[in-house]
Amino acid sequence: MAEKKVKVGLVGFGTVGCGVAKLITEEADAIAAKTSLRLELACVVDIDTQSPRLVKLADGILTNDINRLLDDDTIQIGVELVGGTDAAKQIQLKLLEAGKDVVTANKALLAEYGNELMHCAHKNGRCIAFEASCAGGIPIISGIRTGLAANEIRAMYGIVNGTCNYILSNMTSKNEDFPEALSQAQKLGYAEADPTLDIGGGDSAHKLAILASIAFGYEIALDDIFVEGIESISKDDICYGGEMGYCLKLLAIGQKDKDNRISLRIHPSFIAKDNRLASVNGSFNAVSIFGSAVGQVMYYGRGAGMMPTASAIVADIIDVALGNSATTFRHLCLKPRNQTAALIEKIDNLVTRFYIRLMAKDRPGVFAQVGKVLAENAISISGALQHEGQGPDNTVPVVITTHPTRQSKVTAALEDLDKLDTICSRPVCIRIVDIPEDKEG
Ligand code: NDP
Ligand code: HSE
Fold first, then answer.
1. Is 341 within the bounds of a domain?
2. Are residues 17 and 118 in the same domain?
């Protein structure tokens, strides 16, 4: 078959942009042999054309003038890898209006302005492909949309932020401190330009909004998602949870019940050490999905970093060039198949188990006081752990796990516990998530 030349323009020559440039230039022959498409990087736009980069471009390709890309009608595809929601939004709108299809990894922009961008793409007869926006190199979006098309998706449990997973893994297995682990994740190119998006859970929420919208078929707003990050996680809690058989992960959870009520949440979660997600470490991501016909499916792979993300971007470029994305895009909207608004379950109604740690004065009657507060709030204890004199000022860490309890009751109990003069710092509370597992036999 004769080769078809496909010219690509890239905006944003940072971590992922460099990976895309490297893949297109180094793998052009292999891609052509497989697809009959000859990808050519025609133009790379970045505000900074001076700093040294990991990838060397041919002379004349790098520019700080986006009009070189917009005005060149021979460039069919524009790849936005600038990040953020301000300049990136204008860039995507301009690319679409200039008649180019858009490929992007920008989950923040899609989660916030997805509908507006999709509308602009439809209006201009173009498409937007965004596989790289969720879980880096894992083809999760096409997995849900195409591979699981025959299923009603009932739940998803995902580790979707490589930076947080890297931090929690290193705090758990290498005894590293939080700042040290975060700084390494930044050096490795996993973190967002603003890493508070990673550690505060916002990046996971962006991804959950996109995935849940496709999986459940409702328009999902960021406000629909309860978000708690990992900023205040201490090595002590990872350690005590570990002693009780749990591993700490930042989970993105989406569930739809039989009445179509949807629960969407991001929070640190203790999961059983023998659950498959517990062995997902470092920058790896994994998403466990429960479908009505297939049962449990788990997607696993590198969720962040230059080359894994570039892999998803270049796959989208190929899909766009082959015309597959345009077909998919006609059927896909982030404004999806259900015309009614999603019924979003409030976090107060969540029923789950909890890990609670108190720093208690080491004196008679304290355990009884704590038990009384929990009993008054109808909370049943399922496990307890106390180490001898480890805290400051003659305090001891008292760790309690509960049976399934409504969040609102635990919130009330924590307020009551905080008022006890024998409890010396604010109680720590982490949800325990019992993820179902499909097992043979
Ligand atoms: P970087 O910050 O490394 O790269 C962004 C690049 O865009 C920088 O070179 C930046 O220049 C440049 N830039 C900023 N503003 C403009 C502008 N107005 N016009 C042209 N260039 C501009 O980000 P990443 O490569 O890490 O991320 C890019 C996108 O990919 C983001 O949306 C991110 O969320 C997403 N993503 C990232 C992953 C990762 O592992 N890194 C994984 C999955 C998705 P300067 O540095 O001078 O500001
Ligand atoms: N900052 C993101 C992460 C990049 O750490 O997962 C991948 O989306």
1. no
2. yes
CATH number, domain of 361, equals 3.30.70.260
Integer Cα distance of 8 and 413 in angstroms: 57
Q: Taking the C-alpha atoms of 61, 305, 87 and 93 in order, what is their torsion angle to the nearest 10 degrees? A: 80
Domain assignment of residue 215, yes or no? yes
- pLDDT, tens only, 170-184: 999 999 999 999 999
Q: Are residues 124 and 182 in the same domain?
A: no
CATH of residue 268: 3.30.360.10
Report pTM. Answer: 0.97
Number of domains in the chain: 3
DSSP states of 306-344 as a string?
Answer: HHHHHHHHHHHHHHHHHTHHHHHHHH--SS-S--SPPEE
Give me the domain span that covers residue 127: 4-135
CA distance 397 to 357: 7
The mean pLDDT value for 387-413 works out to: 92
Ligand sitting nearest the alpha carbon of 20:
1
| CB distance 229 to ligand 1 below 6 Å | no
Note the ligand closest to the C-alpha atom of 45.
1
Share of the chain above pLDDT 70, in %: 98
Q: Is the CB of 139 under 6 A from ligand 1?
A: no
What mean pLDDT do residues 139-148 have? 95
How does residue 159 score in pLDDT terms, banded at 50, 70 and 90?
Answer: very high
- Ligand closest to the CA atom of residue 160: 2
What separation in Å is there between the alpha carbon of 163 and the centre of ligand 2? 6
Determine if ligand 2 sits within 6 Å of the CB of residue 268. no
Please work out whether the CB of residue 87 comes within 6 Å of at least one atom of ligand 1: yes
Pocket test for ligand 1, best of 11, 20, 46 (most atoms within 8 A of CB): 46
Cβ of 304 less than 6 Å from ligand 1: yes
3-state secondary structure of 157: strand
- Catalytic positions: 207
Does any domain span residue 376? yes
Nearest to 276 by CA among 297, 305, 260: 297
Provide the 3-class DSSP secondary structure of residue 35. helix
